[in-house]
């Protein structure tokens, strides 16, 4: 009897995939409330091996929130799905879906998926490294720095044309390259390094009404439907890493104003570009602009 129970337990055990391995292999999908987990998995299956797929439901009502997550076996599979599936339709919904890289528990920025860090021999110059990786992917640039941990070798930082290019290079790199996605560090700008002719483009005009324009544009103003709650706005903008705060105010009309704050300018810019004029809820477009505007 004990053996039967042990056998039954073994057959029902399921392996939960590591959501952070490989990196950037999990997608966030705004798909509409009528899409089921089965329909979502069937839709994304042609792009690669789907390890996990689920729809987010309201804890109180049990109803779908129209949000799904799809975890792929490979980064390149997620990259291809992101490139080709965004804007398509999943039956029975008529509105196009929106696909993004899902936020990870590992802190990352939106453009980290476009950059790789690889180890290479010191005799290889930037052109040689670019030529090697260019056989597979479109390489934009290569920056070489001495490898402090391995004297006589270099570390190369490669930026790619697209997420799919970076993913293919990451997966096909030789073991000795020890390729990994590289975080993009914020650029530090010294005021002393700004030339006089560049000053007018570096600073925006200052007026009394817009005296905050000298502050880093990490704050966004969102005009949205008054039917949306602060939690819904938070969940939407939280797909982009770096979200720090979200607050919404209702004035009794059909439009509400929300303030969204990120911890870096890059995430704020990316959120503005991706979510401006996005229909949420379906049929009602949001307006996303810099908080200083």
TrEMBL record:
<protein>
    <recommendedName>
        <fullName>RRM domain-containing protein</fullName>
    </recommendedName>
</protein>
<dbReference type="Pfam" id="PF00076">
    <property type="entry name" value="RRM_1"/>
</dbReference>
<dbReference type="InterPro" id="IPR035979">
    <property type="entry name" value="RBD_domain_sf"/>
</dbReference>
<keyword id="KW-0694">RNA-binding</keyword>
<dbReference type="InterPro" id="IPR000504">
    <property type="entry name" value="RRM_dom"/>
</dbReference>
<dbReference type="GO" id="GO:0003723">
    <property type="term" value="F:RNA binding"/>
</dbReference>
<feature type="domain" description="RRM">
    <location>
        <begin position="12"/>
        <end position="104"/>
    </location>
</feature>
<dbReference type="InterPro" id="IPR012677">
    <property type="entry name" value="Nucleotide-bd_a/b_plait_sf"/>
</dbReference>
